[in-house]
Specification:
The structure holds two protein chains of two kinds. By secondary structure, chain A is mainly alpha-helical. Chain A is 78% helix and 0% strand. Chain A is built from twelve helices and no strands. The radius of gyration of chain A is 24 Å and the shape is globular. Chain B is of the alpha+beta class. Chain B is built from 15 helices and 19 strands. Chain B has helices at residues 6-15, 63-69, 117-129, 162-170, 176-181, 234-242, 256-262, 292-300, 304-311, 342-351, 372-381, 393-399, 416-425, 442-451, 454-470, and strands at 40-45, 74-76, 82-84, 87-92, 98-103, 140-147, 150-155, 194-196, 207-211, 225-230, 248-250, 265-278, 316-318, 359-364, 385-390, 405-411, 475-486, 490-492, 506-508. In chain B, strands 1, 8, 9, 10, 11, 12, 13, 16 and 17 form a nine-stranded mixed beta sheet that branches. In chain B, helix 8 (292-300) runs antiparallel to helix 10 and helix 14 runs antiparallel to helix 15. Chain B is globular. The chains are: A mainly alpha, B alpha+beta. At the A-B interface, helix 2, helix 3, helix 5, helix 7 and helix 11 of A face helix 6 and helix 12 of B.
């Protein structure tokens, strides 16, 4: 298991380095003159030159890259070219917003998706199974942004149970925090619930027909314990979907952040792109990849724990 | 257009076509003064604050943010005329080369230090050095303290726009200690009517402010509580207003009917113009554009009212002038000068020697795609073949001025002299090499404007406006409105030149 984990960590680090290199050079290629975007149209050429010198743009690109990489290796991502505040400080503000929503959405997806998947998988063809399938088709067909707007109009504007926009940090109010992330999380979760329940349903049906299940039942094991065994064996597919969903939501949250006006990574990415704030874009890239690597590592470990044969792969 | 990114300006025009939802909201309780007005002002702005450091801040949508924390030396009235604020009076020298300002002595920074002449001079020097704020002080050679409540600004040449630009948002006074500490970007310290509450504010989402109890100009800022929410998405802003989270919003014309149903107040005024910017009036880059008949043909070929209806949802005025509709200079009768007439346009083009049109390259960016079909149709009818060079928005602003003409949406100024300067005579991103001096009609009229004063100057600008229309200096299609919705009990006065007005223009009543 240790070797298995070490391999996964190493491949994650290689991915991180490769994507960082690509992002660095692509960003410099795409943004020809960041000083113009950063200072606005009123800045004089002398002021643009002074800024270029201040942020090190006057140096060769390779020197800039080595400077960035050597500092990033020590978790120093430099300062934003926009406001000269440390990139890490701003990520520390924005990342929890996106993570809150995405994690809550994943939690909702996992709980409801697994419950629906188990119930319908254990009793396929029943009225409940058919209803869930019908709802799934509808939910899958509905555009996410439209569902978000309906939720806002109903639960925020009419009933006023939740805020229509904004984010409250948990340090200010746990209740306010939960209320501010609930609608965005539900909006993100709806599609995932369908996918997880469908995957799990099919896996549960397949597992239920296995000989070992019949054996367990014939030995008089309680239905609950048998179902737990079925769940454990059927879960890899659902877990993979949940993990992929989490990763996908990190980028998919951009739309939801806009609809609910949440100050998360999506908003920061948009602003940084428009401003040509390359250190901030690199910081966002690194943090996003770290999440992707961590989630994949966690998934591998869980799958390896569930099924030891995976560790050999 | 120097006060907001071009992308934003163009997006605003696009935003006019967005859709809306329904619901209900009520204002917060009355202030008890007999007027059913909220005590809390919750503003839904279009953009996040550019920077809390006034030297780095923009003017467009930063007005409410910065005017909460800082007092300006000079403010503007609703028509763009400079009015007293921290500077109670000013005197322009007879030779126009210096301005003396009297500074009030009862203002105090939120760090407890007094606002005195030394602090004002330090602030102005800081602003002059600023990449963004420095635009107001290009002709300043020095700022000097005369006595404890007087400072003097020495100019290198006459500058009729400096007081206007200072009032527009370039004269916020900052605590000297915070300038020295380089901490304004994070912890702004001014003498304004409110103080930013960093503990309860969430950067990028909501900013909360506490009222300064004994502010010297408290009557201008009646709201006991202030919050500002940057909400880029028009639908999200509207939903926030419907749910009661905000009670003032930068609005969308699509929601006018619903605003009426909700009993909201609606305020709107022109903010910018859409059309073709012509950078080449001599034919240096494109020979045809050097001919008056060709430029006039370009004006006749566009049906401004139709473009306004199709792209701008009708929120604005079809015109061919760059001076704001409703202002002193704008002459509505001139709007008929180039009433849509494609036959006349073709005739003029033939007169100029281009009966079959000509070829031209123009830049294009996704943000301007909404105007592209109108432009293509009009230009095709004239036989003008356009090669569109596609580029992303940051490159558009850098490269578009290199083309002889390009589609744009430019913010306007409420001040007439500033309009002459910014649209015509001074170097701007969209006008890198002003060529008015080479035009024998325009050049003497500009000279007349620059040497006249008072009513004589106003008359000269009116004459210049007429000439600019006659010379078809641009192909202006329409001026677009900015719209603001406020809950019952709150009034907002739009100011041309401010995409979102400063707090002094949001009042109870």
């Amino acid at each position: 298991m240790l070797l298995f984990t070490a391999k996964r960590v190493l491949s994650g680090i290689l991915l991180l380095v490769a994507v960082s290199i690509g992002t660095f050079f692509l960003a410099h290629l795409a943004i020809s003159d960041p000083t113009a975007a950063l200072l606005g149209t009123t800045a004089s050429p002398a002021q643009q030159a002074a800024l270029a010198e201040k942020i090190g743009l006057d140096r060769p690109l390779l020197v800039q890259f080595w400077d960035w990489l050597s500092h990033a290796a020590l978790l120093d991502f430099g300062v934003s070219w926009r406001n000269f505040q440390p990139v890490a400080d701003q990520l520390a503000i924005k990342v929890p917003v996106t993570l809150s929503v995405v994690t809550f959405a994943t939690l909702i997806t996992a709980v409801i998706g697994v419950a629906f998947g188990m119930i319908t998988g254990l009793r396929p063809g029943t009225w409940f199974d058919r209803i869930i399938k019908g709802i799934s088709v509808v939910l899958f067909a509905l555009p996410g942004f439209w569902v978000s707007l309906v939720l806002v109009m109903w639960l925020a504007v009419q009933l006023k149970w939740f805020p229509a926009v904004g984010y409250v940090p948990p340090t200010q109010s746990v209740d306010g925090w939960l209320r501010s992330i609930t609608l965005p999380a539900i909006s993100l979760a709806l599609g995932g619930i369908v996918a997880v329940s469908e995957q799990l349903r099919n896996a549960v049906i397949a597992q239920s027909r296995q000989d070992w299940v019949r054996t367990l039942r014939s030995r008089g094991l309680s239905p609950t314990r048998v179902n737990l065994h079925i769940l454990r064996n059927a879960s890899p597919a659902a877990l993979t979907v949940i993990a992929l969903m989490f990763v996908g939501l990190l980028s998919g949250a951009i739309v939801v952040e806009q609809i609910f006006s949440l100050p998360g990574l999506g908003q920061l990415t948009n602003q940084s792109s428009q401003n040509g704030d390359i250190p901030m874009l690199l910081g966002i890239t690194v943090i996003s990849i770290v999440f992707v690597v961590l989630i994949n590592l966690l998934l591998d470990l869980v799958l390896g724990w569930i099924n030891p044969k995976v560790r050999v792969a | 257009m120097k006060r907001m990114p071009l992308a934003i300006a163009a997006a605003l025009a696009a935003a006019l076509a967005l859709t809306s939802c329904s619901g209900g909201a009520a204002p917060t309780p009355s202030d008890g003064s007999g007027v059913d007005s909220p005590d809390a002002l919750n503003i839904g702005n279009f953009l996040d604050v550019t920077s809390w450091d006034p030297s780095l801040a923009d003017i467009g949508f930063d007005g409410p943010y910065l005017s909460a924390v800082y007092d300006a030396l000079i403010a503007l009235d609703k028509d763009g005329n400079p009015i007293p604020s921290l500077a109670t009076a000013w005197t322009v020298a007879d030779d126009d080369l210096s301005i003396d300002l009297d500074i009030r002595t009862d203002a105090v920074f939120s760090d407890g230090t007094p606002v005195d002449a030394d602090a004002v001079v330090k602030s102005l020097e800081y602003l002059k050095a600023g990449a963004r704020s420095g635009e107001a002080y290009l002709n300043v050679s020095s700022f000097e303290k005369v006595d404890d409540d007087t400072i003097s600004i020495t100019l290198t040449q006459r500058d009729d726009t400096i007081l206007y630009l200072m009032g527009l948002g370039r004269s916020y006074v900052m605590s000297p200690a915070s300038i020295d500490a380089d901490s304004l970007g994070k912890e702004p310290i001014g003498s304004g009517p409110y103080v930013l509450d960093s503990a309860t504010s969430v950067a990028g989402a909501e900013y909360h402010f506490t009222k300064v109890a004994d502010h010297w100009d408290a009557k201008t800022y009646p709201f006991a509580e202030l919050s500002i929410f940057p909400i880029t998405d028009a639908t999200a802003r509207h939903n926030a207003m419907l749910s009661g989270q905000i009670n003032v919003q930068y609005g969308d014309v699509a929601n006018l009917e619903q605003a009426d149903q909700q009993g909201w107040n609606v305020a709107q005024r022109v903010s910018g113009w859409a059309g073709l910017v012509i950078t080449d009036h001599t034919g240096a880059k494109s020979e045809p554009l050097g001919k008056l008949e060709v430029r006039q043909a370009l004006n006749y070929a566009f049906d401004g009212a139709a473009v306004l209806a199709a792209v701008g949802s009708g929120a604005g005025v079809a015109t061919n002038q760059v001076f704001p509709d409703g202002g002193t200079i704008n002459d509505p009768s001139l709007n008929e000068t180039y009433a849509y007439n494609i036959d006349k346009a073709k005739e003029l083009l033939a007169e100029a020697g281009y009966p079959d049109g000509f070829e031209i390259s123009m830049p294009m960016s996704p943000i301007f795609e909404m105007w592209k079909p109108s432009a293509e149709q009009a230009l095709n009818e004239l036989g003008i073949t356009v090669t569109w060079d596609n580029m992303q928005m940051p490159d558009y602003q850098l490269n578009a001025p290199n083309y002889p003409m390009f589609i744009s949406f430019l913010a306007m100024d409420g001040n007439d002299v500033a309009t002459v300067s910014r649209q015509l005579t001074s170097v701007q991103w969209f006008n890198p090499e002003p060529d008015y001096a080479k035009n024998e009609v325009i050049a003497p009229l500009v000279e007349k404007v620059q040497s006249a004063r008072g009513d004589e100057q106003t008359a000269a600008i009116q004459e210049l406006n007429q000439a600019l229309v006659d010379q078809a200096w641009w192909s202006v299609w329409y001026q677009a409105n900015n719209i603001y919705y406020t809950a019952a009990g709150i009034q907002l006065q739009p100011v041309v030149g401010m995409m979102f007005p400063t707090l002094r223009y949001i009042t109870q009543g």
